[in-house]
Amino acid sequence: MKSKNDLLNDFDHAGEYCYNIIKELFPLCRSITGNELRNTLLYFQSILPEMIIESVPSGYSALDWTVPFEWNIQEAYIEDAENNRVVDFKLNNLHVVGYSIPVDEWLSLEELQSHLHSLPAQPNAIPYVTSYYKENWGFCIAQEQRDKLDSENYHCVIKSELAPGELNYGELLIPGETDREILLSTYVCHPSMANNELSGPAVACALALWIKSLKKRKYSYRIVFIPETIGSLVYLSKNIDVMKEKVVSGFVLTCVGDDRCYSYLPSRAGNTLADRVALKALGEIDPDFIRYTWLDRGSDERQYCAPGIDLPVALVMRSKFYEYPEYHTSLDNLDFVSPDGLQGGFNALRRCISILEANVVPRIEILGEPQLGKRGLYPSFSTRDTFDVVKCMMGAISYCDGTMDLLAISEKIGRSFQEVSDALRPLIEAKIITVTEPFPPSY
Amino acid sequence: MKSKNDLLNDFDHAGEYCYNIIKELFPLCRSITGNELRNTLLYFQSILPEMIIESVPSGYSALDWTVPFEWNIQEAYIEDAENNRVVDFKLNNLHVVGYSIPVDEWLSLEELQSHLHSLPAQPNAIPYVTSYYKENWGFCIAQEQRDKLDSENYHCVIKSELAPGELNYGELLIPGETDREILLSTYVCHPSMANNELSGPAVACALALWIKSLKKRKYSYRIVFIPETIGSLVYLSKNIDVMKEKVVSGFVLTCVGDDRCYSYLPSRAGNTLADRVALKALGEIDPDFIRYTWLDRGSDERQYCAPGIDLPVALVMRSKFYEYPEYHTSLDNLDFVSPDGLQGGFNALRRCISILEANVVPRIEILGEPQLGKRGLYPSFSTRDTFDVVKCMMGAISYCDGTMDLLAISEKIGRSFQEVSDALRPLIEAKIITVTEPFPPSY
Amino acid sequence: MKSKNDLLNDFDHAGEYCYNIIKELFPLCRSITGNELRNTLLYFQSILPEMIIESVPSGYSALDWTVPFEWNIQEAYIEDAENNRVVDFKLNNLHVVGYSIPVDEWLSLEELQSHLHSLPAQPNAIPYVTSYYKENWGFCIAQEQRDKLDSENYHCVIKSELAPGELNYGELLIPGETDREILLSTYVCHPSMANNELSGPAVACALALWIKSLKKRKYSYRIVFIPETIGSLVYLSKNIDVMKEKVVSGFVLTCVGDDRCYSYLPSRAGNTLADRVALKALGEIDPDFIRYTWLDRGSDERQYCAPGIDLPVALVMRSKFYEYPEYHTSLDNLDFVSPDGLQGGFNALRRCISILEANVVPRIEILGEPQLGKRGLYPSFSTRDTFDVVKCMMGAISYCDGTMDLLAISEKIGRSFQEVSDALRPLIEAKIITVTEPFPPSY
Predict the structure, then answer these.
(1) Subunit contact C366:A65, Cβ cutoff 8 A
(2) What CA–CA distances, in Å, run from C301 to A265, B310, C193, C267, C307?
């Protein structure tokens, strides 16, 4: 599967589609500002035409932060006295420290060392290093490459610009039946890395297409493609009031592309609707998913859940940032993520959204157990399968007291959300059970 | 012990009395309606003259349900071409599917098979099968008997009536000092089975005699002998308002006759006064009692605890319905229950009621520890025994802050309800501690 | 270290100072009244001149209790027919049952036995026995001494007085910036025993000196030296209203002198600020500290936490009363306690008080994470150490939502109180975080 049309016919192969996006965007040297960030946003806009690309100028005050100068880079290399390029940005854009200022000087090997970054414990990996808020320059190289440097002097060249410009982000609002919103936030500021981070935007893009394809949406969707940290601060500075009013659940989409495990990181409050949904969805997909704590946070949830902002935002991931050896190195590449891994990430988030969309608070309108037989709602054949279905149905009905949503009921009776939803559907259709929306999310 | 008078002198031998009731009522072919149900109620009325036998007509609307026709049966058998009765209702009334319509036809063995019920895994057991709400007929036989059927044709005869009539139940109201009520509900619709279900009505009868024998009763008692499910629905349809107002705790009495274990099944809410009492009483009798969950429910608690009804009704049982191999078969017979088993069931419920009757909210009227010595409330000899009594007393006093009932205090200090009750009695008599009633049961 | 001046320069050697106090006061035959109690109070007054020594007369009504006659003793011995003193109060004041009435009679050995107390299981220990509220007399001796008694008759002499007099206690109020109080209560009624109980008054005295030495005190301190039980009842009878209004946390100081373990005994409520502080402080000092329950109580917490009094008073101890073999015997002597043991007790209580003094409710005044770099609040060098500090700081900041005190935050992020306090201090100084006082202690 390659095309958007293929995807729209079969979201069970979204992983391939996402993988192709990652392949195409992998070479771009994104940062928190600059041309390649804009090109990345334009790429997604070409798939999602409703997406608006917004900008704020350098110097813009975003809550406690200030948007830095825009950074662009043309070329960067280190060459020895014989003009051999021993390091070249063209070969891997991780070779340059992000936001490096321009440089063109000859340094002794010793002087050079203080501008080099490598990982002794991972000698073949190029690390990812940035210096957004302090002027600096440097090169990142594999330790084994560094160990080979033996010339007396090196010529360091970085042709970059750090100048007033703008910071960009993409915003896609997909309306639903109500103005209550689900927030999906992903970040587009990382250069050539795959799980962290092209998996997030790719899966967010596929999810957006899936959400648009839904015939019925209870929730409106706010999907944002932003630079990490400064982008969420900018976005919050402009939208915090409406978000606090409308967002019922949110997810930061990051690290959803490999196939090693599933992970959950809670909101700061820990018990929001987003958390409950994430725990249920992951528990259904892989009971061995890893449960991190708020102390392990590290992405835009830091802003969304900060005191006074307090949005109900949780994370559903595959291998979590910081926690896998390839993290923030050149080893987080196209081999680390896979169509299967991405499909798993897509499925986990899709399940969260599906649960949210289907979640209602059911209340039975009959006192005592309903007589289902007379309504044809009781299986006419009694087999082990129907026994199980009936047990689920009667268990679910017994909790339809108007104080629990389907999610709570499914947790209470130890069934999947889908089983409970399916079991109660006929009774809802028969108007034996009435439903109300689970927002404001008070449980 | 056989007679009611013997029982009234010694409730510690109630098990024998109950066993004799079961023996006498065992042969009757009870169902949810009919003559034998009425005869069973008349039998209990002869012991408990204050019991009123109520009736509702077929077609009566009981919440979501409708009372079916009344069913009576005279004879039923299967005979072969040589007039040998290979199955005969006279030998065991489980042989006929409950509510079987009349039949008198010759069937081929193959045709007959679809009307036979047996249990391959329990080849010597006759299963118990009913079809109250869908017209049907059938025979239940032991698998080993079924395997012997080898004639070509069989003559199936069921002389039954399914016609407008009535549904009956017994209601016994025993007044107490207050109009707050304890509900005891048991069911009388099962034919020849002993633990499930003649043990419930037999123990309910003995408990009613014991309750009547109490010199002082704080609570009024509502004791009902009903057909299961449809009976509780009928009873609720007539009494729900008064029950919601008055019932402080209730118990469904079922499966209280064998001697294998003790079991507890919670109310839907799980933390009502009935639950707290049941847990305490069972914990004192047998710390290894089995704790089921609301998902394991199966009797009239399904109605009493349904959303909107929400009565505080729990179950204290011996071997729970569904959970023992003999359940709903001819093996649940007079050998499965025993006087000792029934005595255990009686004792467990009696302990629940005793705790409820004695439970009060104590409040100490003195600031700081009371000086018990000056009131002669401190043991004058100090031994290991008195040390333990004093420790219990001082522990209990320390929690007499007016927010906990005796039950909560006994849980808090890890003592039996009786120990705590005994320890505080002298202080209550000395008016150092005042008490209030624990209803409305807010903790 | 011996002198008060030494102590004021180095509270990290308070153990030695306390040990010297214990040595000096050890020989005095204290009881709940009498000259030696007064002398003990005068001793502490000489160190803490602001301490006021109060008195109430015999017969004074203290809540439910009455202050007994004052007891003084000059001499007591048992001699045989040859005038050999086989037991002599001069050698150990535990030899006489506390509050023994005067006696001067010849008894047969058999008659004498009923007036003797010994411990068969600890043959070399003299037990500590009293009879405050019932007139009695007796001698306490080692079992091995008792076994040697073989004369026919013994002359028992106790030269004591039990007569109207007074009960005394010491009260020290150290004012702070607010009128919210920390209560420290210790008891001074035990004769020659060291852990239980001279360690409490000695450590209370050192703590009082340390508290006075603080340049800044948020809380006022109410430090009382009282006879156990009757003293706290007397003190409460006079001060309960002001204490209920002002006391934010309190500790009974007892058994803080040996070096075997640390122990915690909760308030009756179990979750007061005093409990939270005690658990945190002990957890930081020794994660293996022993957690007793309210059922193990035994000192003045019985009064302070009684229903209706309900002060937030917990106990931080070394080896708890009742629980060590030497308890209430002559083996609880100067060998059982040690400067190190006392220093540990002092440190634990000092840590509790330090936490209380530093505990505030922080609220961050910035939405989203603050940009610490621009304020110079972010370490400029990134090392493993600074990483840990930053992680602690960012974790703490993330909980500065105005609903948690520093104590709660430190529990939440699994750091010591000091680490959290240190991490947030620069932000408080920079006014990024504002603080409010954690009282009334509502969490």
Answers:
(1) no
(2) 43, 42, 21, 7, 11
Mean of pLDDT values over A254-279: 97
A121 and B CB contact within 8 Å: no
For every residue of A227-282, DSSP letters joined together read: -TTHHHHHHHHHHHHHHHHHEEEEEEE-S---SS--EEE--SSS-SHHHHHHHHHH
Cα distance between residue A424 and residue A121, in whole Å: 55
Considering only the beta carbons, identify the residue of C65, C232, C307 that sits closest to B401.
Answer: C307
**Which chain C residues in 360-379 lie under 8 Å from chain A, judged by CB atoms?**
363-364, 366-371, 373-374
Q: What is the ipTM of this complex?
A: 0.92
Contact B210, B11 (CB under 8 A): yes
Residue ranges with strand state E in B188-334: 220-226, 247-253, 263-265, 290-291, 313-317
* CB-closest option in A64, A134, A295 to C370: A64
> How far apart are alpha carbons B101 and B76 in whole angstroms?
11
- Is C322 in the B-facing interface, judged by CB distances under 8 Å? no
What residues in B contact C62, CB-CB < 8 Å?
A: 368
Residues of C in contact with A133 (CB under 8 A): 371, 373-374
Is B137's pLDDT higher than 70?
A: yes
> Stretch B40-55: mean pLDDT, rounded?
98
Give yes or no for a contact between A148 and A108, defined as CB atoms under 8 angstroms apart: no
CA pair distance A141, A138, nearest whole angstrom: 10
- Alpha-carbon distance of C24 to C22, in angstroms, equals 5
User: ∠ at Cα C288 (C283, C292), nearest 5°?
Assistant: 85
Chain C contact present for A233, CB below 8 A: yes
> What local confidence, expressed as pLDDT, does residue A441 receive?
55
**Chain B residue closest to C134 (CA)?**
B373
Closest residue, chain B, to C294 (C-alpha): B395
Write out pLDDT tens, residues B227-286.
Answer: 999 999 999 999 999 999 999 999 999 999 999 999 999 999 999 999 999 999 999 999
pLDDT, tens only, A400-417: 999 999 999 999 999 999
Mutate to test the interface with A, among B233, B295, B310 (most CBs of A within 10 A): B295
Backbone φ, ψ for residue A174 (5° rounding): -110, 110
Q: What is the pTM of this model?
A: 0.93
Q: What is the pLDDT of residues B5-22, one digit of tens each?
A: 888 889 999 999 999 999
Nearest to C306 among B368, B373, B395 (CB): B368
Nearest Cα residue in chain A from B66: A371
Residues 6+ apart with CB under 8 A from A32: A68, A71, A132, A167, A189, A227, A228, A229, A230, A231
pLDDT number for residue A440: 67
d(CA A337, CA A224): 22
Tell me the chain A residues in contact with residue B308 when contact means C-beta distances shorter than 8 Å. 364, 367, 401
Count of pairs with CB atoms under 8 A, one residue in B, one in C: 57
